Predict the structure.
Amino acid sequence: MRDLWNREIDYIRISVTDRCNLRCVYCMPEEGIESISHDRILTFDEIARICRVMAQSGLKKIKLTGGEPLIRRGIVSLVRQLKEVPGIEQVTLTTNGILLEEMADDLVSSGIDAVTVSLDTLDRERFRQMTRRDELPRVLEGIRAMRRHPQIPLKINCLLQEPEKDLLAVADLARTQPIHVRFIEVMPIGYGRQMKFVKEERLRELLMKHYGTLTPCGDVLGNGPAVYFSLEGFQGKIGFISAVSHKFCNSCNRVRLTSDGFLKTCLQYDTGVRLKEPMQAGCSDEELASLIAQAIREKPVGHEFDKKGLVAGEEVRTMSQIGG
């Protein structure tokens, strides 16, 4: 699958639900959002069918996200289902970690290839303020549960935001444990527009001040655009995903599938195609493949997050509605 800019698309991020058991300040309001009705959510068979059709054209990697994917009943069976799709090389998961302790063993037995936990602070009160829930102990237990399966790569995603001491504390997890910690610049989408964020360069300065030289490494430790560095004495790597200050659109290899079946070709724009309705109407696999191919061909050349104000055709939904 290639777009008009000759980028090969082999990776899809699938939101299995728009529901979440946190209320993060950069994602949704305190009262939450109106959830999509059950009959509008993609079924597991519909998700598997889309992946099977795309795999026939080169899809190789799948990331399951949400909302919070572990609250979707039967998520472990979906992992098994997707692992059986010919051509799919990896099925991974991003979670907030609250339900990870009780589900870690089942996820591993289902064949999950890697797990990423979103964690922005190790301070319990700050966590409660940011997520509006007092769930940090459960998240840490979930991380410990996955550490009991060292064959499954474990990463931490942390948003680059103040206070900086929180960022250093999360980075230290990569020093004391074989966990890769990636820092992500806040993108101006939804409630993220209101956030004051720290740029990659600032954290790099802080890390070198505390830990020494950041040495670039060419390791490919995931399916996304993270750039990794090693630090002396660290068991894991430090990565940066900096869509705002270090634009990487020219190497973008992914599309997103929302929980209600919209194949979204760029995070910033509302471009893409609806897939649930054609499937419900009885379209053939060939027709489904044609819809997908046309949407991918027209994938935008890149985002314009650095521009002030709204951009023509810009996405107006929040991240919880789009999918992580």
